[in-house]
Every structure is written in C-alpha cells, then in structure tokens.
C-alpha cells in the first residue's frame, strides 16, 4: 500500500467503493486522513465497513468541512451529467480528484524523481503496460504495475527513487488527475470511445492529452490524426521531449518500426545511424501491426529509462503476452492454439486474422453492430469457421459461399472440431483461433471467462504442449 499523507488531519469524502475506491479509502486512512465513504451498492458499503472505513450518506455531510471528494473512476464527472456527489462538491468549492492524483501528490512528497511511467490510449494500453513492466523486470528492476490494469495504484508499494511504477491510465482516471506528471508519459493512439462519458471526441482527446502534457518525456503516437495533432501542439510549445512514435512511418526523428526492428533516430542522424532498440522477429506474443505499435512504445520507454538495447531485446523475447489477447495457449503437433477472446468486435478480430494464413476460426457470441461483414478481406485466410452462440446464424449468412463453416453452437464442440480439422489439414502451421468478433454475454459473463474456458478445453487435448 501507498499511504496517502497529503490529507493527514483532514476529512475527505469518497464516493465509489469498488476496487480502486476501497484502496483509496484505506490509503487515505493509513496516511492520517478521516475518510467518510459512500456507495449506492450495499455489498460495497458492507465491505468498506468490515475494512474499518466509516460510511455515511454524503448528502448529509457539512461540505464546508471537507478537504476533497475522491471519486471512483467509474462515476460520471462531466457527462452525461455530473454525479450528485460531484455537484455537491462543486457547490461547496471542494476539489474532485481520483486515486491517480493521490498517488501523484504522494510521489512529489516522497520521491519526486521516482520513475513513473503512465500509459494511455484507446487501444493497446494493457499490452504496452504489461510489456514495459516485463522488460524492466527482466532487467532486474523493482517494478510496480497497476492502475487500470490489475492492481489499484494505491495498493502498490510507495514511490522510491529506485522503484518503477508502470501505470495504465483510463480517460476516466486522467480526468480526475489534474496534476499528473509522469517521468515518461505515453499516448498510444486515439479513436472514438467513451463518448457517453466525455461528450465529444475533442473533449475525449483533450483529457488524454493531459497525461503527456506535463511528462518529462512524452512518447506520442502519430499514426492517427488526433494523437498526431497533440504531438504537433506540444512540439510547438518548444517541447523537444515530445517524441513521435510510429508503427507505419519511417520518421526523421523519433521511435518507429523498420521491418521487424524498433529503432530510435535523432534529427541529425542518417537513416542507417538509427539505433536499434529491439527486434520483434520470432516473438509470437507480439504478432501484428497493432502489437508492433505497442512494442515501439515499450522499447522507447525502456530506453528512456536507461535500459540498453540488449536488455530490451531480452525482455521482448521472453514476453508471454496477456491472457485473452493473442494468447498462445499451446501446440498439438504443428497446430497452434490462440486465445483472442478479448476480440469482442470485428475491428479487434481483424487484428488477429491479419496475423495468420491458415486459420480455423472460432467466432460468434452476442453480436455487435455490423457483424463480420467488415472482415471480408480476411476470408481467404480462413480455412474453416466454427460458429457459436446467438450470432451463429447471421455469421453463417455472411460466410455462405465464401468460407466453409459449421454450426458448432458451443465452444466445446467448436474446439473439438477445429482441432480435428486443423490437424488433418496438411498445412505448415494451421492455427485454431478463438477471436469471436462478439461479446460473450449470451453464454459467458465476460470475455475473460470465455477465454479461460477455451484455454481449459485446449489444455485438455491429448498430446498438447503448452506454448
């Protein structure tokens, strides 16, 4: 835990007692603050009470005596309208902040030079965060990883000069962190998302920009127009530390992907003088252009943190990937089994389909708008599809006459049939790929449970070797 001492002796209101909210309450209490917390969810209130956190309806408090409202990131700050607790705080002139802001203030008190790598973007945040943490750990560094991935930031060990905090930040968390100032700030990419909570794409992008605005080093993607505009704007403020990153362009200055290599180039260097930071050749857990982009940021961050290219390469080569995101489960003979359950829409599934040529594709579930029609360009890569869940009939209509398919209905039958057909295909490296292009809610509570079920079914196949 990181005790938050910046509110010692003061009373702080807190709304939202999920994982990060409860962690914030405990950290504030450990740092000497008086915390009064509330949640609309009765089990969450009971859990807080069991943990020794005082609870009360915040509407009954005297807000003139409160120093801050700590808001859980899932609670609306601005759109579609501010939560009632936010309105109370604003009426009383009380600041509204979140757990990332509490960490930033504690870092400035304890160890202002402690390495703090913050990562955001619409896509790729989790993989980039996990990859940076893995590279640093493989080089023997003390690493604390968390935030929007896994562990709440205030449940991690406190900042220290020789301890690296690698933190994934959602737009909701950044919106509640007005003074966020990482040593390395990363903005991977931007596309429309969470507009119900931010109102417009412009506001969403402006929130994301805050993470890199005060960073000592800013690594900013330029492969989409919104991110590139942010990089240009920061560079126009005489910020040479605003470094462009690309997976699709060779840059005169910055970090980019050249073939399978991640390279860094200064303005005054010739192309052949660019420094090679890492090589993705043979790294199965980082297949595809989207993962090349993630790796470019991870290599750049590690390099700016003082790691050598040799240390970075070692980390890349041993990265296992994230569960349910192009996760290599195992092999049976020459058949590779890949769990990409996180692909809950066609755009996500496309990132997996582009990586292989002989695919035995398990797809279906609760369909999203547009179905799989946008994936038509990848149909020649698919040897056969195995359709499951509510979307099976609609997907069959799209595939009819273009891709062989069978109506498997359930995941267990799909895995059995795909494994059989892939083994008999005679191709060099057939791939049984779960990349459903659908939500899971018709048969599973979430994509994680679906992915775990796939993994368990694959691992139960006779003769399978773990990847």
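Q: What amino acid sequence fits the structure above?
A:
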């Amino acid at each position: 835990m990181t005790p938050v001492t910046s509110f010692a002796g003061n009373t702080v209101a807190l709304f939202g007692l999920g994982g990060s909210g409860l962690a914030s309450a405990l950290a504030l209490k450990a740092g000497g603050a008086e915390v009064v917390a509330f949640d609309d969810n009765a089990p969450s209130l009971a859990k807080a009470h069991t943990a020794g956190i005082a609870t009360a309806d915040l509407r009954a408090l005297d807000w003139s005596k409160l120093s801050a409202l700590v808001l859980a990131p899932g609670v609306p700050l601005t759109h579609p309208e501010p939560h009632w607790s936010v309105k109370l705080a604003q009426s009383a002139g009380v600041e509204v902040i979140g757990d990332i802001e509490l960490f930033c203030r504690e870092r400035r008190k304890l160890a202002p030079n402690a390495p703090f790598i913050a990562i955001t973007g619409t896509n790729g945040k989790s993989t980039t965060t996990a990859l940076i943490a893995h590279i640093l750990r493989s080089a023997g560094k003390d690493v604390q990883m968390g935030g929007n991935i896994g562990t709440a930031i205030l449940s991690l060990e406190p900042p220290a000069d020789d301890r690296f905090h690698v933190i994934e930040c959602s737009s909701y968390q950044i919106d509640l962190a007005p003074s966020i100032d990482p040593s390395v700030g990363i903005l991977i990419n931007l596309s429309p998302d969470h507009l119900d909570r931010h109102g417009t794409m412009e506001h969403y992008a402006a929130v994301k920009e805050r993470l890199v605005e005060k960073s000592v080093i800013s690594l900013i993607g330029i492969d989409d127009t919104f991110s590139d505009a942010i990089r240009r704007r920061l560079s126009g403020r005489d910020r040479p530390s605003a470094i462009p990153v690309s997976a699709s362009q060779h840059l005169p200055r910055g970090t980019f992907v050249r073939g399978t290599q991640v390279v860094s180039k200064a303005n005054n260097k010739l192309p052949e003088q660019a420094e090679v930071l890492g090589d993705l050749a043979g790294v199965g857990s980082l297949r595809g252009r989207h993962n090349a982009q993630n790796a470019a940021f991870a290599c750049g961050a590690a390099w700016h943190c003082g790691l050598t290219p040799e240390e970075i390469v070692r980390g890349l080569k041993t990265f296992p990937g994230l569960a349910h995101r192009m996760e290599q489960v195992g092999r049976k003979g020459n058949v590779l089994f890949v769990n990409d359950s996180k692909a809950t829409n066609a755009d996500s599934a496309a990132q997996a389909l582009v990586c292989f040529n002989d695919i035995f594709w398990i797809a279906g579930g609760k369909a999203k708008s547009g179905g799989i029609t946008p994936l038509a360009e990848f149909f020649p890569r698919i040897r056969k599809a195995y359709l499951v869940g509510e979307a099976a009939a609609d997907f069959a209509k799209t595939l009819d006459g273009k891709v062989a398919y069978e109506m498997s209905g359930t995941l267990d039958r799909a895995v059995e049939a795909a494994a059989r057909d892939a083994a008999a295909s005679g191709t060099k490296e057939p791939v049984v790929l779960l990349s459903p292009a659908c939500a899971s809610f018709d048969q599973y509570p979430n994509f994680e449970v679906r992915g775990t079920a796939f993994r368990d079914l694959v691992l139960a196949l006779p003769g399978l070797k773990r990847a």
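Q: And what stands out in the fold?
A: The longest helix spans residues 289-304.
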